[in-house]
């Protein structure tokens, strides 16, 4: 891999790229589009719109950056505006879809390993690193009611009913 010597955070993220093909200029120029105090955590290459460019996941936002000879494009997605992330991978490449502020952005031709890792990290960012809550356990009243119904239907004996009722009440 090519050493870029841009900035320590950018260099570290660039070293993890399987290929920087089509994004070398963007890696060199990335500090120009970053905010003060913003650090790069992960990079990936991809195609968005008409440009082959660089996806940069920072501590504050997701940035797509294309810097061509005649034009450049910067589109950013602050984490607070991203509602969901979708990853669909093929044999070698895939598509990262970002849903933000009522719109949808598809970044295509993202190398499979980079895209999946980026999607997983993005999901953690937008959920605040908190995994989805497990389903709530039924409340005590519901459990006792179900137990009563089982006894009335003859599905459990009086002895099983007493044992299970005791366990439910002991769980309080």
UniProtKB/TrEMBL annotation:
<protein>
    <submittedName>
        <fullName>PH domain-containing protein</fullName>
    </submittedName>
</protein>
<dbReference type="Pfam" id="PF09851">
    <property type="entry name" value="SHOCT"/>
</dbReference>
<dbReference type="InterPro" id="IPR037063">
    <property type="entry name" value="PHb_sf"/>
</dbReference>
<dbReference type="InterPro" id="IPR039519">
    <property type="entry name" value="YokE-like_PH"/>
</dbReference>
<feature type="domain" description="SHOCT">
    <location>
        <begin position="143"/>
        <end position="169"/>
    </location>
</feature>
<dbReference type="InterPro" id="IPR018649">
    <property type="entry name" value="SHOCT"/>
</dbReference>
<dbReference type="Pfam" id="PF14470">
    <property type="entry name" value="bPH_3"/>
</dbReference>
<feature type="domain" description="YokE-like PH">
    <location>
        <begin position="37"/>
        <end position="123"/>
    </location>
</feature>
